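Q: What would this chain look like folded?
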Amino acid sequence: MKQLSLKEELQNNAYPGRGIVIGKSANGRYAVTAYFIMGRSTNSRNRVFVEDGEGIRTQAFDPSKLEDPSLIIYAPVRVLGNKTIVTNGDQTDTIYEGMDKQLTFEQSLRSREFEPDDPNYTPRISGIIHIENGGYNYAMSILKSNNGNPDSCNRYTFAYENPAAGEGHFIHTYMHDGNPLPSFEGEPKLVAIPDDMDAFTDMLWESLNEDNKVSLFVRYIEIETGRYTTRIMNKNK
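A: My prediction, written as structure tokens:
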């Protein structure tokens, strides 16, 4: 697979929606993940990321303007032991609870489908990072309607064992802006993952469309120790 420029992928797409990046830093020391949200409506844009224990959650920036919280207020990131879960919806909790009962990542998601937001039927994208005894692997999932037909749910899981240093994968909800919004197609895109967390965070934030970007989360986890550093960027301040 050809490695793509994550910067160009974001700069050339005004509305990829919500996106997850997972990979390994170039020096091989860190498991890296990033998650961003974007919004076109006032309700979607009225959000910020806040830390919540070892994870994060979304909350309304201005509670008085919050309309329907069902698909916009959730915990995108939760930590279960040596596993870090990153998703674009409340399926974070589904994965957490399932894996806590010894189900696999894929099995935990069997009870979920794409979002019920007719006519977009936004895909549910999810990622899981597993670090153990100095080893690291990750997986990504997308649950999507069958070409806009809500009667069928297409389920795809992509697993990456012992990922190569300096490489990661990027998956997002929409191919581009549109009405209805076209769901992501294909497997996660191969992208580069640098060592410099601050430079990576700044690149992501600056590359997202200025009008539509809302919040960004980036975490670098030291594979040997499990210690992590987090950065959060919010447009609303």
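The radius of gyration is 16 Å.
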